[in-house]
Structures are given as structure tokens and as C-alpha cells.
Amino acid sequence: MDSLKKLHFYRKTPVDLTEATSSGGVISIVALLIMVYLFLSQLIMFWQVQTVTDIVMDNSSGSQATMGIDFDVTLARLPCQYASVDVLDILGTARINVTEGRHNFHVTKTRVVTEELSMKRVPGAKLATPDLVQSPRDEKRDHHTRHDAIKALKKFPVSEHRDWEEDWDKEIYSFELTGDNFEDKLSKYDFAMVDFFAPWCHWCTELKPVWEHATGLVEKTTMDYGEDPTEGWHGFQNRKEGMFAWEDYNGKHEHAPMTLVDFLNQKRDSLGLGDVPLHGRKRVIMAKVDCTRTENRDLCRQHRIMGYPTVRVYRNGAAHSMEEYQGERKAEAFLGFVHDNVPDIPMSEDDSSNTALLREREAEFHANLDTETHEGCNIVGSVEVKKVPGKLMFAAHSNYLDFDLKSVNTSHTIQHLSFRSINPKLEDKRSLRNSASEKLLRVKLTRRKWEDKKNLLRNRLGSYKDSVLRYLWPLDKKRFVSQEPHQVSEHYVKVVHSRMNLLHFKEFSVYQMQVHSNAFAEDGALPTTKISYDVSPLNVHLTEQRRSTAEFLTGLCAIIGGVFTVIGLIDSVLFHGTKLIKKMELGKAE
Asked: Which of 79, 337, 346, 343 shows the shortest CA–CA distance to 210?
């Protein structure tokens, strides 16, 4: 026991040898308060989360040197059939009109109706585009040229004379409409197709003989002569059978083909029905409008004609329609389209339920289009790009249309735009099958998954609302209106990759954006919407951490010992100073 006493660091001073003072009591209370305050501050700091931000170079390479762009953009005044999505970068990569299944991209288009002023989508007015529809840049249609049209007209003539071989103006069947008689003329017909053209347009020149040939055939095959349709069509069981017989006959007699009327008269005479009546009720009209003429410019503008030739469809006498013919430009294609769509004309067979349902949806969609609305295109997709400066472009394109550049408008709404990692590190080991599914989901994020992801990040980054969260989706829910012709809209996006290592969450990555938007008019330019992005070579690492228990205890001991020592020194100075002053006063008194 005696040896342990020798090791005692904290030896006690007898009470008789100590002296207590009032000033010492006050100082002790102050010391106690200071120690309590510092202890509580140390405790609060121990429980607080500290944020450490580091700036490092991006060392990604290979598959890690790519990123994904998710976008949901509505082109309010550009139909889907012309909407093209292009991806370009500074390395020379040019992926034109990206679509599903190509370049590891996933892009879908939906036809929508938008309001004239607000650009808001009309609720319920949407129509999904078929998955197999070709993109406007890859579109390959079997259109007849002028030469093909002459050969077809020779094989399946509408009239006996051949003057049209030298001058097409002598074989005119389509009625030319103007702004003054447009509505009045169309109101008299159950079904109408109108070709909006411009004389300088190459494709309009190619279409002209095809259009006249088709118009002549439509006129002969859709006339209502007041005969009972249940008794057949000019002696044939139905129209399809009659047309097939005529085509078969002329195919075997190319040296002496018969006109359709002569062929039908021959059939009717064999049955004692007499010739085809000279007069009847014309239920279908195929007409044309020259948009370059002064009196027609307002008409073409009201019908939002942005390219030539544009063939519009009008039903039941309505003079306002935005339904556009998108089939092949051949006489038989036009004829088949009319035969399939004109109501109450005897058909060879009833429409299937799927076809009827599709037509009903088409009709409901076009019913929302009028002078105060536009047909637009909602483009939703995910693309994979390299981490180099590049552009995501939305523009109008068609292989078989000459655009009126002044009429093309790329006003748009960005519902969502974000960047993301394509190959994030998997925190846990997974099977090959699960990894493949994970990769598929990372590439093909849907709109619902985007919203789920945004809500998840809002919850995780709630305490970083001003420093991180506000820069994740700065363009979401914003509208941009093109008010001038030839207007190009460009959004400059600076992208910074940030790694977040937050407490209670596994490490994850986000891409912050700083955006500047600009719009300018460039004469002669095709209006486009560009999203130009530039990826910073610096990465931000944000780490959350708490003080360790050892650091807390070390700081606590330093506080208690330091305060005790410092206050003790102050007390000693005051005590001895007071005594010294008293001695000095006592000496003076003596």
C-alpha cells in the first residue's frame, strides 16, 4: 500500500492549509458556468453532421466516360412526323434522329394537342405513334416520280385522249381552291383531300401527275348514282372485285388498255344494266391549293402548312382539319386510302375491330384541333453520350417535303432534363441476370421512374436545397416560345458530376447543371431547339461525417482541464495581488 501511495498523482492538501475567499467563490461559479457551456457546445458539435467538400479531377475512362441524358420535351407546334432528335459531340459523333433500338437509345413520340397561347397540352388529346413507324430522316416511302406516274396512267387510263402526254394541264381532274371558296366547296362533300403545294417545290412537281391520276380514279369509283349498293358495284360483287378485274385486264392487255369507265360499261352491258350514268352525286373531292398565291396565303397560314406538298384530309364537310395524309404518294395508294375512309360506300369486307378503334381514336384526336390549337409532339427519351461537349437537337426534317421555313416553329416545353451515370458502382454483389436488368432500367427510365427518382433525391438532399438540389433540374417545367420566324432556341448547360457520400445512405452520384438560355433569329435558317452541354473535368465529392467519440472525449477533457487551470491562475493572481496590495497599504500606514 505504501508503494501505491508513492504513485498517487493527485495528492490532497489538508483543509487546514487552504484558505477560501468570497472572490474565489465568484470565480469558481464563473468557471463552472463556462465549463457547462463549453461541454454543451462540445456535445452539440458531437451530434452535428459536418459536410466536407473536395474538388478532384474526373478520372473516369472506358465505359465510365459516358453518361445518360434523360429528357421529356414537348414541341408545341411541330407534328411528330417531322420531329427529329439528333445527338452530336465535339469528337465528331453525329447520331441523326435517334430512335429506340439504335445507339443504345430509347426515344418515344406521342402526338399531342397544345393551346395556341399558353402552349399547355389539351387534357386527353394525345395519340401514341406506332412503335414501328420510321423516323423522318430514315423514312423510305415508295413515291411515284413524274415518269412513274406517266407509266401508270398509260396502263390504267382515266380518259381516251392522250394529249396529256405533251401537256399535263390537259389532264386536270382536281379542283383548284382559293381562300374565297375553300369552305363553301368542302362543305358540299362527305370526304375531301386537299394538296397544299408550291410551284417551286420539287416534290410538288413530282406529285402533280400522280395527284391528277388519283383524282380521276377517285371521281369514277366514288360517285353516288343512286343505285342500291346491296346489289353490287356495276355488275361486280363489290368495288374491290371490280377494281381488281380492271387491273388484271389491263395488265394482260398493256398494248390496248381500257379506261375504267369503258371497262365498267362493258361489264354492265353484258348484264343488261346499261352504261354508267353520266351524272351522279359527287361525294368525294380531291382538290389543290397554291400557297404561293397572294389570295391563298392567309388560308395556308390558318391551316398551318409548314411544308410542301402537304395533303390534308377533311371529313363530313368540315373545312377545318389538321389530319394529314402520311401514306405513299402513288395513285393506287391515294385511291385505296379514299376507299378505306369514305363512309357508306360498299366495302369488300367489314373493318376489323382494331382498325375501327384506331380510326375512332384518330377522329377523337383530330376533333381537338382547331384554329386555337396546334398539333405538337411529346418526345420522351434517354440517350447515352460521351463526357465531352456536345449537343442534343430537336428539329424538323422530312425526306419528301420542302419546308416553308417561316412556318416552322419550335416553341417547346421542357418537362424534364437531367444527366445521370450509366454504369454506377454496384454496392452489393448481384447475379448476372439482375445486373442486366439493372442496366436495362438505367438506360430506359420512364417518366414515372424519373418522378420517383426526383422525390428520392429531394428527401436525401433536403438539407442541401440551395447548394445542390436547386441545380439538379433547373429547366424542368419551363416554356420557351418562338415569336419570330427562323428563330433558333439554344440552352447552354454546364454539367458538374457530384458524388454524394451521405450518412445513412450508400454513395450515389448526381449531375448539377448551370443553365443559360438564349433565342435568336437567323435568316434562312431552319428553326431548331438545341441543348448544348459541356461537362466539367472536375468532380465534386461531398461527404457527411460526425466527430468520433475519442475526439469528443479529448475535447471534453481539454475544456474541463483548460478552464480549471486558467481560472485557477486567474484566482491565484487575484488572491496574491490582493494580499500584496494590503501589505503595501499596511507598510505605508506604519
From this structure: 337
Reference 345, options 227, 236, 229, 231; nearest CA is 229
- Short-list 126, 220, 211, CA closest to 175: 211
Q: What one-letter code names the amino acid at 103?
A: H
Cell of 320: 377545318
- Please determine, for residue 491, whether its predicted confidence score (pLDDT) is greater than 90: yes
Rounded CA separation 278/4 (Å): 135
Q: Phi and psi dihedrals of 492, rounded to 5?
A: -95, 120
Task: Give per-residue pLDDT as tens, 151-164.
Answer: 676 667 766 555 55
Q: Which pTM value belongs to this model?
A: 0.70
Tell which residue, 557, 578, 575, has the closest CA to residue 27: 575
How far is Cα of residue 380 from the mean position of the Cα atoms in its chain? 4
Average pLDDT over residues 126-148: 56
Phi, psi of 515 (to 5 degrees): -120, 140
Tell me: the pLDDT tens digits for 536-571? 999 999 888 877 788 878 888 888 888 888 888 887
> Rounded to an integer, what distance in angstroms lies between the CA atom of residue 161 and that of residue 197?
27
In what order do the strands lie in the sheet containing 478-480? 121-128, 106-115, 373-386, 66-75, 412-421, 478-480
Does pLDDT of 44 surpass 70?
Answer: yes
Transcribe 383-395 into DSSP letters: EEEESSSEEEEEE
Residue 193: how many other CB atoms lie within 10 Å: 23
Q: Pick 445 or 564 by higher pLDDT.
A: 564
52 sits in which H/E element: strand 50-57
Q: How far apart are CA 414 and CA 297, in angstroms?
A: 32
CA proximity to 369, closest of 415, 412, 411, 315: 315
Alpha carbon distance 238, 236 (integer Å): 5
Distance in Å from the first CA to the final CA of the chain: 53
Distance CA 33, CA 120 (A): 64
Cβ-Cβ contacts under 8 Å for 264 (sequence gap 6 or more): 234, 235, 242, 246, 276
- The 3 state secondary structure assigned to 468-497 is CHHHCCCCCCEEECCCCCCEEEEEEEEEEE
457, 469 Cβ separation under 8 angstroms: yes
pLDDT classification of 122: cutoffs 50, 70, 90: confident
What is the total residue count of the chain?
A: 590
The grid cell for 143 is 413515291
Distance of CA 524 to the CA centre of its chain: 26
